[in-house]
Design goal:
Helices cover 72% and strands 0% of the residues. It has 124 residues and is mainly α. The protein folds into 2 domains: 57 residues, no CATH class; 64 residues, no CATH class. Helix 1 runs antiparallel to helix 2 and helix 3 packs antiparallel against helix 5. The radius of gyration is 18 Å and the shape is globular.
Length: 124
């Protein structure tokens, strides 16, 4: 299986998870009786927007390798870093990160590498 196919499958899985999560959030908020007023509708709409933003995959840039996309995704999702580019400003280039965030990022990187290695080994 090619990396392009793996990426396509991952996006399909992400979309399925997103749809299921949105459905579950609506059910939890509204219960069996549905929305009670416009405030609930607005609250769910806000939650859905946040959910959509959180589940959006990082889009590859022109000429960017799959490795770099994965690294940027981990940096954003696990460490909250919008960019890994040096911007020439200490306030923008240095970040305080707690040990748990760094551990989560390293674990994610290891797990992604193990999955990629297994997928490549299975495709040979």
């Amino acid at each position: 299986m090619s990396l392009r196919e793996l990426l396509s499958r991952a996006r399909d899985a992400l979309e399925a998870i997103q749809e299921q999560t949105q459905s579950t959030v609506c059910e939890l908020v509204t219960g069996a009786e549905g929305f009670r007023d416009d405030r609930e509708v607005d609250a769910v709409a806000g939650l859905m927007t946040e959910l959509d933003e959180a589940l959006q995959p990082v889009e590859p840039r022109a000429g960017e390798s799959i490795r770099d996309v994965v690294i940027r995704t981990i940096a954003l999702e696990e460490l909250g870093l919008e960019t890994l580019e040096t911007r020439g400003n200490d306030r923008l280039d240095f970040h305080d990160l707690n040990a748990a965030s760094v551990k989560a990022a390293l674990t994610q990187a290891f797990d992604d590498g193990a999955r990629a290695g297994a997928a490549l080994a299975g495709g040979q």
